[in-house]
Design a protein that fits this description.
alpha/beta; single chain; 330 residues; eight-stranded mixed beta sheet; four-stranded mixed beta sheet
Length: 330
Amino acid sequence: MCVSPRVLSTANLTSVGDFPLRSSNVRLFDCSIVQLFAMQDATQKARVLIEALPYIQAFRGSWVVVKFGGSAMEDAATIDSVLQDIIFMECVGMRPIIVHGGGKAISRGMEEHGMPARFVKGLRVTCEKTIAIVEKVIKGEVNPRIVDAINALGGRAVTVHGEDVLHVEKKQEVDALTGEMLDWGFVGEPGEVDVTAIRALVEQGTIPVITPLGMGGDGKVHNVNADVAAAAVAQALAVRKLVFLSDVPGLLRDPEDPASLLETLQTSELEQLIEDGVIGGGMLPKCSSGVAALHAGVRKVHMVDGRVKHSLLLEIFTQQGIGTEIVSTE
């Protein structure tokens, strides 16, 4: 916008950008001042790109698995922000793969059928009726929403049904305290991951969007915790980065205090926090899966608050980062 070279009153104009107009009469404010502010804004944008350049160069060609879940998937603006980041990553040469959750949508679907959600050690107990709801919500609501949004934003996304690539075993575990066998029903632990289709899609320049489902040895679809599924895919592909996007700032030493963010951890420190009981609930699958992925060769695991606008870009392409970064002790 240009300001005509004439006398203006502060009733009409009190500032331009961050520049205050203090005189009661503003004289001869010509276009050059406004153009200066526009140039400063453009220069600032250029500085941001230059700061990101070393990271873009370093990560070009790198494979990254992004687990997208939590409250970050509940708000349309947040979804677009996250997906814009992922599209940007693909455009600058990274090779992103999305594994998504959908827990909140599943819980709503269960409530509509009068079925309360039950969790044991952060994992949803999934009976035969529940798995039918899980499939319906994941395949008919959550996954198409993500794929359609990426395509609408100018990216290229394709659905990958988890049961076509994840071969799982029934999740069972002996309770260390009671000695009883814990049974989550139709919940699977990933074993073999068939990466052929995933690799082909990525090499075609598309972004695979994988559902958190797996095929059991009994020929039935099983629910798979999305954190565990993402880590399994990351391990099988030997990716450079595994990113968990959720609705917390990262790993907190005190879950009630956002200021207690742990910015960088080694696997040995994280394992100690798990053993000490500092980490539990829904964070436990993320942390346990992240440690396993690092031990299997993934170079870095990031835990980031997906509710923060463009948090993925801030974590990966800036020096200060925004969440928790975990690296192997070895």
